[in-house]
Design goal:
Blueprint lengths: L16 E7 L8 H8 L9 E5 L5 H14 L3 E4 L4 H10 E6 L9 H7 L4 E4 L4 H4 L6 E4 L3 H13 L1 H18 L2 H20 L1
Parallel strand pairs: 1-2, 1-4, 2-3, 4-5, 5-6
Length: about 200
């Protein structure tokens, strides 16, 4: 699989748990507040825990998110300083990866999730539109809390659809997002650019 350490983990100990995962610096532009507010609109009996993995960020913003989660009745855990192997395991155990940064140019998180066979629910802004094909390996929504929460609910309730998206995610990474394939696409773009300027 592409993206090196990110992969599906095939052991009897790895089972999906009732949490959704988001990864990124603990900063406002990563969209964690939007995710929390969206999760608060998921039915109480279905609402998963939100687990955020953050290597660094704003301590005041972290505190704000923790207080907001309490007020919204959303279980939240923010982890820092975890190993790559621990992150891979979390990607594999999560039911979904939720992704809502503001105009992220590309973003590796969706590809890491796909490499681990975990579907992504994302806001259709920026680079995520290149890696996630809506309805195939994840769901893309507008930046609307209710719409985002409904997409999460749909996949939490539909195991068959989630598993199909999981397989599609792995296939997409293996067949399109490998380093070799990415390199070939860059070369093709460069060749077309050279031909354009030679005309």
């Amino acid at each position: 699989s592409a993206y090196l350490r990110f992969r599906t983990v095939h052991t009897k100990d790895v089972v999906k748990e009732n949490f959704v995962l988001s990864v990124g610096q603990c900063l406002p532009e990563k969209g964690f507040e939007f995710i929390l507010r969206s999760l608060s609109k998921v039915a109480d009996n279905l609402r998963p825990e939100l687990l955020i993995v953050s290597d660094q960020g704003n301590e005041h913003w972290k505190t704000y998110l923790e207080d907001l989660a309490i007020n919204l009745n959303v279980k939240l855990k923010i982890l820092t300083m975890i190993t790559d192997d621990e992150l891979v395991l979390l990607y594999n155990k999560a039911k979904l990866v939720v992704y809502a940064p503001y105009i992220e140019p590309f973003g590796l998180v969706p590809l890491e999730a796909m490499s681990c066979g975990t579907p992504v629910v994302g806001v259709k802004e920026g680079g995520v539109r290149e890696s996630i094909v809506d309805g195939l390996n994840g769901i893309l929504t507008d930046r609307d809390e209710l719409e985002f929460s409904e997409a999460i609910t749909e996949l939490l309730l539909n195991n068959e659809k989630r598993e199909k998206m999981s397989k599609n995610s792995i296939n997409a990474v293996n067949n399109f997002w490998t380093l070799d394939d990415s390199g070939k696409r860059i070369l093709d773009h460069l060749k077309r650019a050279v031909l354009y300027f030679d005309e």
